[in-house]
Amino acid sequence: MLFLHLSDVQASVGDVSSKRPSALDFVGKAKFDAWSALKGISQEEAQKRYAQLVSSLLNEQVEQAGESDRAISDLEPISGVNLSKKGKIFWIELNRPEKYNAITWEMYRGLTKAFNYASKDSNTAITVFAGVGSYFCSGNDLSNFAGVKTREDIARIAAEGAIVLDEYVSAFVNHEKPLIALVNGPAIGIAVTVLALFDLVLASDKATFHTPFTTLGQSPEGCSTYTFPMLMGHLKAAEVLLFGRKLTALEALERNLVNQVIPAPAFLTESSKLVEAYSNLPPESLRLNKQSLRSVHKEALLQCKDREVKLLAERWQSSECIEAIQRFMSRKK
Fold this sequence. Notes:
Layout: H1 2-12, H2 26-36, H3 43-73, E1 81-86, E2 89-94, H4 105-120, E3 126-131, H5 151-173, E4 179-183, E5 187-188, H6 190-193, E6 200-204, E7 208-210, H7 224-232, H8 234-241, E8 247-248, H9 249-254, E9 260-262, H10 267-279, H11 283-295, H12 298-316, H13 319-332
Helix pairs in contact: 1-3, 4-5, 5-12, 7-8
């Protein structure tokens, strides 16, 4: 930008004629030296170079915008999910408000691809996960288990679900860019547990956090059996994961699951401002510093994920879980 400014000055004024600033005037000295480097170039030539420089910068901006468009077009559309690129921010939004943003198997697969793509996209500095409507996400769509009639059906779905879950959670653990969650409303199940794998969690004061695993005959996932005790201490983590205590936004803040609570009317505006500000930080520093923070626990997280997925696949086939899902499905009819 300094060179651009001084090229304009050279084109308008001509050669530098003032004295070189003192050694203590670092900024003035840098400007003087940069302008002196253009000495001898005619105003006509400087004007020509200035025009070329401005043109090249504009072309670069257009190319970067084109790269953002291609980044989205490279991914297949996901029913119930919005993908968009705004500047250096990759937005992934759950958009299934009529189902409280519950996640189907198809959505899990698409979300995994989207998170992995954003992680590797050179034009992405930050990845944001949000929900459209009154809910952030109501977790796993239990209709994923609809139509099950035999033990063989249950075993097959449990095996398929384990693969989907393994890949989904791995996408968060291995994500190379800072992950920001904007929790606009209630979060349930896996929508809560994966939050501890994010780098920043902003919550509306209308948000709640509920993990009713025991009630559903299931077990925790999202590496929460590792991250929650580390964040909250064993007793408070057990209260949430074992006994299903629903947390308010302020309680989640007190337990280190949330960074900041924002009043609901201002949530979208204020959270977007923060995301935009963070996206303007040097992207390579963001990536490398994220990598350093994650490397401390990464292997332990992946091992925890493997244990949790294995146990959950077993729980899905248990009589307690099957009966709980049947009760849920019968209430929906």
